[in-house]
Each structure stands twice: as structure tokens, then as C-alpha cells.
Amino acid sequence: MDVLSVLDEIGFIDGLHIEALVSTIDEEGMANLAPIGVRRIGDKLYMKIYKDTQTYTNLVSRDLALINITDNVEYYYIATFRDDEAIILLDHPLDNGLPPLRDADAYIVVKKEDFEDYNEFIIIKFKVIDIQIKKGFPRLITRCKNAIIESLIHATRIRVFLERGDIDKVTRLKHLISHYKDIINRICPSKPYGMIMDDLERMIREWEKNSD
């Protein structure tokens, strides 16, 4: 299997940051499920892991992790705040000992290759070992898409408020768009996300100029 081609096919393109539920196990084989952002850079995947988490403890002692792809927001809530309930979301362990999310659209098996230490957290570089598609087309969660949609909605209102001369509301919405652009600049590839935001800001400047 060409795992990189599969990543491309499911929309996990180079430079994209997605949200996922990551399964790890400790030295005794006890499972943990945690919501973690995963970024693809070339043929590697990267995760920022805080040192005060069980995921960090598990990955110190073991090299493998399992990235579960799902857009079920209730699962993210449970994995974030209800550890005791998160375990029942997991299926029987694979041959490597890692339990996949029972209702995952897909899962990606990764192996730790290297890490960089930043005091409170580490950034781990992973090699993709395997990908299994469990449903027709996996639904990735990425803040990039949400940031674009929110910005587009705000921009349509900016145009209306400029026509009305309501500058306070224009300013407030521009601040929100700036916040979303910061997210996109930080975790999203320039094409198409950065390009869309640049064009959106250009249009807003033109609307402001025409409204003077």
C-alpha cells in the first residue's frame, strides 16, 4: 500500500493540520484515548504532546500510536473530559496491541521516529506504517475549513454594515476574521486556505475604499 497516496486520497494533504482521537497504551497494555492535533509535513506526521498527559507517558515507553479519524464531536467531548467513558469507545486491540476507535472512519498506525523538546511539551515526528479505511470516505476534522467558513460569513456582513455606515460592527467582524487568519497561517497550507484569506482581505479593503 502506498500510504502517502492514501493520505492524499482522503484529503489529508501536505501541510494540513487535522484533529483526531489518538490511541496509545502504557507499559502494561492499558489503553488511553485523547484528542490531539496531527499535522502532515511531506511523508511524516507530527503531534504536539504535553508532558502532563497520559499520551506523553505512553509514548515515552512505546513507539506506536493509532490515529483515529472521526467527525463525531461527542467522541471528542468524551475523550477530553470523561476518561472513564472514553475506554468503552475503543474496539479490541489490533495485533500491535493498539485499540482502534470502534466507530472510526479510518485509522492510521504510526511509529515514533524523533522528537523535539520544548520544556512543557514535545513535538513528535511519526512515520506512517499503515492506514485502514473503515467507511466509504473518511470525514476529516480540520479547523482550517471552519475558519474559512466563519470568515466568509463575517465578510458578507461586513459588506452590509459598510453600506449602512456601521463601523463598530465592521471593526468587530474584521477582528474575528483576523483571528481566523492567524489560525490559518499557523496550521493550514497556503493553498487553498491562505490564498482564500488573502483574497478575502483584498475584497474587504476594496469595499472599505468604495464606501468612503
What can you tell me about this protein's structure?
There is one protein chain. By secondary structure, this protein is α+β, with helices and mostly antiparallel strands. It folds into 2 domains: 3-133, Electron Transport, Fmn-binding Protein, Chain A (Pnp Oxidase, Chain A), CATH 2.30.110; 143-211. Helix content is 44%, strand content 27%. The chain has 7 helices and 6 strands. The protein has helices spanning 3-9, 54-61, 73-81, 83-86, 143-164, 167-187, 190-211, and strands at residues 17-25, 31-41, 44-50, 64-69, 106-117, 121-133. It has a 6-stranded antiparallel barrel. A hairpin with a 3-residue loop joins strand 5 and strand 6. Helix 5 packs antiparallel against helix 6 (167-187) and helix 5 (143-164) runs parallel beside helix 7.
Q: Based on CA inertia axes, which overall geometry fits?
A: elongated
* Count of domains: 2
CATH superfamily of the largest domain: Electron Transport, Fmn-binding Protein, Chain A
**Spatial strand sequence of the major β-sheet:** 1-2-3-6-5-4
Query: How confident overall, as mean pLDDT?
Result: 94
Q: What is Rg?
A: 20 Å
Order of helices and strands: HEEEHEHHEEHHH
Broad structural category: alpha+beta
Give the N-to-C terminal Cα separation. 58 Å
* CATH classification, class level of the largest domain: Mainly Beta
What is the count of helical runs? 7
CATH fold annotation of the largest domain:
Pnp Oxidase, Chain A
- CATH architecture group name of the largest domain: Roll
